[in-house]
């Protein structure tokens, strides 16, 4: 079963993105597509830096270096793609979308309960953001 999942991950994911956050992107897309989840919490973590394919497949190279800049780009693009996928669901106009840059003072909330195109400089925690998103 795990082998089948690995093959699907590499062939049906967002391309064969060994170096990026393929698992999170693929899983999120599949949960939205198959289960049509009304609530989905996704967290991206730093990815490893690119290494030669033979090193990745052999499992050698215990010197794991992280790629924080590449990870942020991956998470930003994946969030956008997940929003697009969310818009394909039935009653998507009733759904909310929240993206938070963990550890920083930036978040984006798209919700039918909030006015469009507004910006706030208010300090809110994650619970307050979720309350805003769900109206």
Describe the structure.
The protein has 135 residues and is mostly helical. The chain is 44% helix and 10% strand. It is built from five helices and four strands; from the N terminus they run ααβαβαββα. The model has no long low-confidence stretch (mean pLDDT 78).
- The outline comes out as flat
Strand order of the largest sheet: 1-2
**Which series of helices and strands comes N to C?**
HHEHEHEEH
Mean pLDDT: 78
Main sheet, how many strands, which sense, barrel?
2 strands, antiparallel
Distance between the termini: 41 Å
Low-confidence runs: none
Number of helices: 5
Radius of gyration: 17 Å
> Per DSSP, what share of the residues sits in E-state strands of 2 or more residues?
5-15%
Q: In short, what is this structure?
A:
With 135 residues, the protein is mainly α. The chain has helices spanning 2-12, 22-35, 53-58, 68-86, 126-134; strands spanning 47-48, 66-67, 97-101, 106-110. Helix content is 44%, strand content 10%.
């Amino acid at each position: 079963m795990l082998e089948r999942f690995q093959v699907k991950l590499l062939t049906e994911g967002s391309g064969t993105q060994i170096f990026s956050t393929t698992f999170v992107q693929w899983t999120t897309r599949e949960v939205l597509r198959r289960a049509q989840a009304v609530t989905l919490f996704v967290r991206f973590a730093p990815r490893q830096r690119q290494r030669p394919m033979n090193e990745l497949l052999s499992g050698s190279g215990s010197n794991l270096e992280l790629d924080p800049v590449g990870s942020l780009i991956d998470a930003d693009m994946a969030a956008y793609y997940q929003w697009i996928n969310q818009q394909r669901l039935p009653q998507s106009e009733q759904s909310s979308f929240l993206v938070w840059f963990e550890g920083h003072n930036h978040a984006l909330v798209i919700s039918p309960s909030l006015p469009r195109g507004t910006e706030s400089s208010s300090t809110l925690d994650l619970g307050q953001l979720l309350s805003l998103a769900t109206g």
